[in-house]
Design a protein that fits this description.
There is one protein chain. By secondary structure, the chain is mostly helical. Helix content is 67%, strand content 0%. The chain has two helices and no strands. The chain has helices at 14-26, 36-70. The longest helix is centred in the last third of the chain and has 35 residues, at 36-70. The relative contact order is 0.05.
Length: 72
């Protein structure tokens, strides 16, 4: 039973959740530091570019099969 952990973490009570929400309403929002925006953009590229490349490759193969191999 590798995935069944007997020391499961207890859920948050409603009072604890309300306390966190009320605390977040009084705190100032976080400001971006120098270099945060390029890091965010790089992370987005790292996540989305492989999916776009895979989708483009699959579409290109289908296109090639339809008009070059099957179409004659």
């Amino acid at each position: 039973m590798l995935f069944l952990n007997s020391r499961k973490r207890k859920g948050m009570t409603r009072e604890e959740a309300d306390a966190i929400i009320n605390k977040s309403k009084t705190e100032a929002p976080l400001e971006l530091e120098k270099g945060d925006l390029p890091a965010i953009l790089m992370a987005a590229f790292i996540v989305f570019v492989p999916f776009l490349l895979a989708f483009g490759a699959a579409f290109g193969i289908v296109w090639w099969l339809m008009f070059r191999v099957i179409g004659g």
